[in-house]
Amino acid sequence: MTEQISGTGFSSRKRTVASLMVGTAATAFAWAPAAAQTSNELAAANTDQPAIVVTGTRIANPNLDQSSPVQVVGQDEIDLRQATNAEDLIGELPGITPGVSNSVNNGSAGIGTLNLRGLDSRRNIVLLDGTRIVPASLFSETDLNTIPVALIERVEIVTGGASSVYGADAIAGVANFVTRRDFEGMEAAATFGITERGDGERFRVDLTIGANFDDGRGNAVLSVGYQEMDDIIMASRLFSQNGLRRNGTTGGSGTSVPTRISSTVVGGGGVNQLNADGTALIPTYNTFNFSPFNFLQTPFQRYNVYASADYEITPGIEVYSRAMYNKTTVNLQLAPSGLFGDTWQFPLNNPFINETIRQQICASPVVNVDAATCTAAGAATGPTDPNYLEVPVTINRRLVEQGPRRTDNTFNQFQIWAGVRGGLTDSIDYDVYASYGESQRNNTRLGWGLKSRVQQALLADSPTECQDPSNGCFPINLFGGGVGTNIDPRSVAFFDQPSGFSDTTSLAVVNASLSGDLGETGFFTDTPVGFAIGTEYRDYTASRVADLPAGTQDEVLGTGAPSPSFGGGYDVIEGFAELIVPILEDVPGFYSLTAEGGIRVSDYSNTGTSVTWKAGGSWEPFQGFRIRGIYQRSVRSPNIGELFLPVTTGLTGLAVDPCAGTAPVGNAALTAICIAQGAPAALVNAGVIQQPSAEQANLTTGGNPNLDPEVADSFTIGLVLTPPQVPGLTVTVDYYDIEITDAITQRTPDDILTPCFGPNLDGVGGSDPSVCSLLIRNPLNGSLNGGGDTPGFAPPLTNQGTLLTRGVDFRVAYRVPLNFGSLNFDLNGNWTDTLKFQAVPGGINRECVGQYSANCGFPSQTQGGAITPEWTFNLRTTLSIDDLADISLLWRWIDSVDYERILSRAGLDPEFESIDEANYFDLSIRSNVSENFDVTLTVFNLLDRDPPVVGNSVGTSSQNAGNTFPSTYDTLGRRYSVTGRLRF
């Protein structure tokens, strides 16, 4: 299914590796300083000090201080967190906005993603030992859960742009997972966790063995692991058992039982539901509580294998390789499927309706069949009868007889690396490697139902025979008096068929680089100039192969959007260079002064040539006081999903439709807009159009092959204090400013509603026809719900967006020696001054800091609506008792947030207008039972804090679920975890 994207191909570029290396090197020497960090030595094992390492530059000289701040999660923190997945290591760090995690059920693809600065997971890179990992999604997102946690020594996070060092996509930054090198011996570890309620069990076991051989010239490591997590269902927590509406009342989806039909007489209520006895339609209807069926914690099962080996053939020539494989199954579950307001061809001789219901259907202004014709059609014997008549109706009926909708995502991912490295001279090293990886996701849906088979089962002339009996069709009874029991199991077996698709992504990389020192000293310093130069070739492919139901619009009931087959690919060749130039050192006022710069020239087969660069430096006027700063230009080329994903109709959040109810009655301007968007005039004038079902409207969108790269400018300036007078103290404060222009985004619902309907949604001050045309209604009932015949919101993906974020990262770490050990404090915090998103010029320049709604989160529907508080911090206090034990308390604080302030509060429960600050405490005790065995016990959410309750409609369905925001706030309650580790 993979195809080459049209455009300048590799063969037409004819750009040689040599010319790229020479050209970029020459340019780099013209640039001033650039970005990265400091020493590649971590702090002592038990202090976990925030040393600044080498992610952010390819120049590995411990004597050179670089300019980019790097956040480090060290080995001690990794051990105390007892992480089951890599997402557990970094997902709660200040400055990181929740991405997709095991707390996301509705809308999850089964992967864990990193969302730096709230700029979306597509705008950062996840590395393993400084090299790229094969993407796990069609949008080039890396699955954090493929990282071999057992071998991670530390995690280094650079934010604010790193494209000149690691290539495009690093607009928001980079997370580099660094594995332990030259591991020797055996390590076996097992972790078990459970909540205080007795559910959500977590289990992880790892075995790692390594050995040096041939007198230390070689090393080999093998690590195997297994992880398992049980589900936690929303029905098991009081706050999430019942879905809450916007107004705070218990409610849910309008697709419920009994059946609801949108085909009533004008003025009769608009949407009718059956009486409990099935005799007639009534103008009121029940709602369906979908919450209890959903997961608060999605279950998974994972096997992973990681192996590495290196061997020094001769001095200066070392061959190395590594490989990893993961197999993961992630299960998702939603409430029962249903007929969610789609249009159906309904025979008036359906054997399960009576004359009262038949006449009410015929009297609809849309159906408009006179009484005599209607009666005659009801008596028709079949399609060959001249009185036979089918009419279009929209039906809402929850198919509770099928049970919940289930989705199984099975991932198979592998990647191999092989290379040779060594020293050309005593001061210049080389590294040449190649890598190839593939990731395959198999998606299987069970219990969803197929629309074509329901339609076939509706066309029945008797209670036991379909007009078309093929494939074992059995008529479906949507009109019985029972609630959830009147659809015959034989009918359920007929339309309840599995469906699915398979996504495959691949990444091939070839990289060659030189790094080292230019001479033995600098121009005016004893420290020499550091450099790195190289070239890289990458080739990406992605494809989706769907079965017929999964790829057909509206065919799989309750999916929101289909998953049609498609494919695409592109390649890129790059040249890069970096310099770190010591200018002065050990002179009055200049303990050190360093400049750095870097450049990368990228030639994409789909978007052409782009240039990224960085310039910065650091000044240490006296020892222990250093100022650092960096300016970077980053460029991100669109990924395969953004380019080629087929246009389909899915869902987006919407609580209030301006055309619904009596709002347009007597309002000529509003009425005209609603009719122009396809709503039947009779229903608009009668005031009977319904509000969006389950506060969700249709959204029609897809890729855009004409997208261009987006551009980001980032600036950081900071202060590092390590005063010799206060041993053990480190203070860092860094200001960052990131602005993305030509951003790949699309209008939010509010960016369509406001210019179309006006600021009060009453038709006054709006009526922009170019924007109003982006809203297309159901032609039968005028709503924004239904299947593919209702596009709903239809904003294209464009390069018209602008994103901006500014803030300050700060960290204070202090180690106090004691007679019996030490007392360690580590405060890590973030203040976000602004996080703005403007989808189109002239559109709403939306501020997202300290606010929650469905509008923040940018193009990603799974991450849209994530919360970015103004202030967050983590404070870990650890008492270390010699080599015997550590007692550690982690305090995680999240600032209060408000419902998006520019939005109307009409109909919103006052309790849902804000969320108070949140405090979480985790207590850990680690004990060295013997020289070879240690045990760690942690109590998470020590005070058993409940999450805030704000209903299910103030954000997107992925981030706002269970009446709260489960990716931001703890929904599981107090829980316990214990890890035992044996080492030899």
The coarse silhouette is elongated
Summarize the amount of helix as a percent range: 10-25%
Structural class: mainly beta
Q: Mind telling me the CATH superfamily name of the domain at 10-235 and 296-335 and 407-445 and 501-638 and 707-746 and 797-983?
A: TonB-dependent receptor, beta-barrel domain
Query: End-to-end distance, in Å?
Result: 49 Å
Task: Sum up the structure in keywords.
984 residues; mainly beta; Maltoporin, Chain A; 22-stranded antiparallel barrel; five-stranded mixed sheet; 15 helices
What does this structure look like?
Helix content is 10%, strand content 42%. The protein has 984 residues and is mostly beta strands. It has a domain at 10-235 and 296-335 and 407-445 and 501-638 and 707-746 and 797-983: Beta Barrel (Maltoporin, Chain A). Strand 30 and strand 31 (729-745) form a beta hairpin. The longest helix has 12 residues, at 17-28. The two termini are 49 Å apart.
